[in-house]
Amino acid sequence: xxxxxxxxxxxxxxxxxxxxxxxxxxxxxxxxxxxxxxxxxxxxxxxxxxxxxxxxxxxxxxxxxxxxxxxxxxxxxxxxxxxxxxxxxxxxxxxxxxxxxxxxxxxxxxxxxxxxxxxxxxxxxxxxxxxxxxxxxxxxxxxxxxxxxxxxxxxxxxxxxxxxxxxxxxxxxxxxxxxxxxxxxxxxxxxxxxxxxxxxxxxxxxxxxxxxxxxxxxxxxxxxxxxxxxxxxxxxxxxxxxxxxxxxxxxxxxxxxxxxxxxxxxxxxxxxxxxxxxxxxxxxxxxxxxxxxxxxxxxxxxxxxxxxxxxxxxxxxxxxxxxxxxxxxxxxxxxxxxxxxxxxxxxxx
Length: 349
Ligand code: GLY
Known about the structure:
By secondary structure, this protein is an alpha/beta fold.
């Protein structure tokens, strides 16, 4: 088992182990005196793991409730979160009770947001079952729902009380979603760790997945501890995401995974950085090769012009331009503001 502590919020532990689900009740009881626990999960993950988790929770004295929603980003709405909090209110959950996010990024984001707003904040546990949520979204306390105007526009920073990463859940994860998570691991290597990038580039990630997850969450924990509310350094975690979100939007969030879009975004922004003399030559090509190795895309059918236009709702935008995240070389991310009028030229159009 691997473990680490994140000193953000009240501070919390992350445990990473194959089949940690079979001991989850004990770990959750260690951090919570709750009488009631509500499992939040989706229609894909609930049938696979909820029974085992319920048994664990009941054996450790929790009175267990559940909320199951239709799997998919379409469910990540304020309406679904209000349904969760209504269920908590109907069942008289108090501030001492807890929520447990059992699932991927959508589940964690919504469960965390419900926990942030119910009674002005109760505790929640992250039990991420997708690679993307294990390497990234379950750590750091970003919670949100989507609005018709854009992704994650309504949310709160609310740190979990515990993160339990069970690598066995990756056995049931379709290959496409393993690749999805690999894009975020590659991103972490690009911005923070050349050695992590090389490990992913040279080896087979599946064989060393516990190490990769540990390195990703350790690096992320450091960033979150230094900049919990994204006033500076945390923005580096958005490498590839400005173009990535624009690409997802152009595809109406269908037929392309978040990781695929972020991968394309990383290549696009790095090519632009190279073109402007802001990144070591050959870096975009190196990122593209590693993305291909994990069956990720490196370009999109939409034109660069259309992608730039679709960046307008980006959260990294200021009134005068966009704070693009670039890398100088593999392992070294930085923020580079570009004025609105210079954006097309920055991308070479
Ligand atoms: N996923 C990016 C962040 O947590 O800041």
